[in-house]
Amino acid sequence: VQLQASGGGLVQPGGSLRLSCVASGFTFSSSPMNWVRQTPGKEIEWVSSITRTGGFTSYASSVKGRFTISRDNDKNTLYLQMNSLKPEDTAVYYCTFSQYRGQGTLVTVSS
């Protein structure tokens, strides 16, 4: 199983970023997927989940209304559109499947 996240970077408060996660080594289209994030010294925080078809999504209260999770099963790719970013969104973001967590991408929100 490989999960490669990308799209992170430095953005000002109020800005937007779109994260991508390319998956391989398992049947992506049959798998619910998640985004989680971690700040140094803190526990991993669940951010969002999506069902295998994308028909149902869920969000942590801290990001609801600002983040949107989506997927393209033809491209084996998971996305996280992040709008109205806040400094407290600064973290390394990972996509996960079952017990697997791939290489993350760093998002820094700062002026």
What's the quick description here?
The protein has 111 residues and is an all-beta fold. Helices cover 0% and strands 51% of the residues.
Characterization of the model:
The protein is mainly beta and 111 residues long. The protein contains no helices and eleven strands. The strands form two sheets. Strands 2, 4, 5, 6, 9, 10 and 11 form a seven-stranded mixed beta sheet that branches. The radius of gyration is 13 Å and the shape is globular. The model has no long low-confidence stretch (mean pLDDT 96).
Unreliable stretches:
none
- Counting helices, strands and paired strands, the structural category is mainly beta
In angstroms, what is the radius of gyration? Answer: 13 Å
The geometry reads as globular
What's the overall average pLDDT, rounded? 96
Distance between the termini: 37 Å
User: What order do the helices and strands follow?
Assistant: EEEEEEEEEEE
Q: Total strand count, please?
A: 11
Percent of residues in helices comes to: under 10%
Beta strand %: over 45%
Number of continuous helical runs? 0
- Biggest β-sheet: count, sense, barrel? 7 strands, mixed
